[in-house]
Design brief:
Chain lengths: 225, 271
């Protein structure tokens, strides 16, 4: 994997997509081989790595603002500075007016947006995302794709994005890793030939997108057969 | 009439009927002119009017130990036992809930001590701590501790590991994970144990007062004294006062709970 690259991993469920993320994140040790970050093997949770879970991991007992500020709080960032950065993040995500709301009052899409912001506000170099939009409806999902791409264009973090949704992978990624059925192996690494910046709506109507989708669907389809 | 008013009206009606029946049935004779043969004998259950009279007397300064002093003593012992029990139970539950080895080591002792009926300890506790406040606090503590302990223990064990992971990825150290993830998660469980805890603390204190004699004061003493003098009215005064104390304390805890757990959807609609 390269620096500043957006890689998506797709494959049938149970093929170990999430396990790869967990290994990079130091949550599980690899059974064979090694994971290295900047040439050093991963042991424990590496610094500078952000992780957005599939499940809702927003802390229900904290307001939106205090959730977003969590990472800054952990790092001992002074309160004034913390407030400033949280306010900026809230504005970026269009969550104004919800700062003092508790997560239970928000929709699934908004909660996941809070989780994403909470991860980004501490400026990770590497972003691991495990089907972060898997539980959302298509409409909300596409909105969040646009937002994620916007945020990514600004910082160019290295992203590993796990999904089972091929169109999501094509929309977002530079390269797509297709995995085989259980036991999961890498079947194909495909470079997405779509220019950036991408418009998530128009993109889907383009011919190039259709070509990419057709090719990859064919390869992925073999795994479902 | 709104639903709320209708419910209130029914409640009031039931109260009036019950109190009225109590007053009336303890006044009429079952067999005319035969002394003592009432429908319900006021010797055993007293009468509302008699209870009110006794209450007024006990609340006045004509008595050496007023009902207020006794109620205060009971409330004091209960709150102390509750506070000490909750804080130690919470700390122990947290410690054992997050440390499997510690939990395995202490498990048989905790189960053994908890299966012992606490009432059986009253004489021993009295022997060690005397008749005063301390004995009652210890007794209340011995009950409250376990209720809070078991709940917090469960709560600390059932913290969502993904919340801990996400805190870790956000840069939290062990102490921060404890204070921002485990404690708030477990607190939701601990709170569920607070209402029963205060009731049990009150039970512990009253049982302690049964044995404590006059030096301990308290409403339990009034009950035992009334038994000695076969005074049903005084006993009813003590019981009703205890009932009011129990209700007020439980409501107070509900208020604190609703405030601290306001992030939970089930508390959202309430003020």
């Amino acid at each position: 994997m390269f620096d500043q690259e957006f890689v998506a991993i797709v494959g049938p469920s149970g093929c170990g997509k999430s396990t790869i993320l967990n290994m990079i994140g130091g949550l599980v040790a690899p059974s064979a081989g090694a994971i290295e970050l900047d040439g050093r093997p991963v042991a424990g949770t590496p610094p500078g790595v952000g992780y957005v879970f599939q499940k809702d991991t927003v802390f229900p007992w904290r307001t939106v603002a205090r959730n977003i500020g969590l990472g800054l709080e952990y790092r001992g960032v002074a309160e004034a500075e913390r407030e400033r950065r949280v306010r900026e993040a809230v504005r970026l995500a269009g969550l104004e007016g919800f700062e003092e709301a508790f997560p239970a009052t928000l929709s699934g899409g908004m909660r996941q947006r809070v989780a994403l912001l909470r991860t980004l506000v501490v400026d990770p170099e590497i972003l691991l995302m495990d089907e972060p939009f898997g539980a959302l409806d298509t409409h909300t999902k596409i909105g969040l794709h646009a937002e994620l791409l916007n945020l990514w264009e600004a910082r160019h973090q290295t992203v590993v994005f796990v999904t089972h949704d091929l169109s999501e992978a094509i929309t977002l990624a530079d390269r797509i890793v297709v995995m085989t059925r259980r036991p999961g192996r890498v079947k194909l690494v495909h470079a997405v030939g779509l220019p950036r910046p991408r418009d998530v709506i128009k993109l889907r109507e383009s011919e190039a997108y259709g070509r990419e989708y057709g090719q990859l669907w064919h390869v992925l389809g073999e795994e479902f057969a | 009439m709104s639903e709320r008013a209708r419910v209130l009206a029914w409640r009031l009606a039931i109260l009036v009927v019950l109190v009225g029946a109590w007053e009336w049935l303890t006044a009429i004779k079952a067999v005319s002119k035969t002394p003592g043969l009432y429908w319900i004998d006021p010797f055993f259950v007293s009468r509302p009017s008699a209870i009110v009279r006794r209450f007024a007397y006990l609340a006045s300064d004509q008595v050496r130990l007023s009902i207020w002093a006794m109620a205060l003593s009971t409330v004091q012992s209960t709150l102390w036992g509750f506070l000490v029990g909750v804080s130690t139970g919470f700390a122990a539950g947290l410690a054992l809930g997050r440390n499997d080895r510690l939990a395995r080591i202490f498990e048989p002792y905790i189960i053994a001590f908890n299966s012992l009926p606490r009432i059986a300890l009253v004489p021993l506790i009295t022997m060690i701590f005397g008749f005063g406040l301390l004995a009652k606090i210890v007794l209340a503590w011995s009950i409250v501790f376990f209720i809070v302990f078991f709940n917090t223990f469960q709560g600390a064990r059932s913290v969502d590991p993904d919340l801990i992971h996400s805190a870790r990825f956000l840069g939290a150290n062990d102490r921060q994970i404890m204070s921002t993830v485990i404690v708030p998660s477990a607190l939701a469980w601990t709170f569920a144990s607070l209402t029963p805890s205060i009731s049990f603390a009150l039970i512990g204190v009253v049982v302690g007062e049964f044995l404590g004699g006059e030096s301990g004061g308290g409403l339990g003493y009034l009950i035992i004294q009334s038994l000695g003098t076969l005074n049903a009215a005084d006993m009813m005064v003590a019981l009703l006062t205890l009932g009011v104390i129990g209700i007020v304390m439980a409501l107070g805890i509900k208020q604190v709970e609703a405030r601290l757990l306001r992030w939970r959807p089930e508390y959202r609609s309430r003020p």
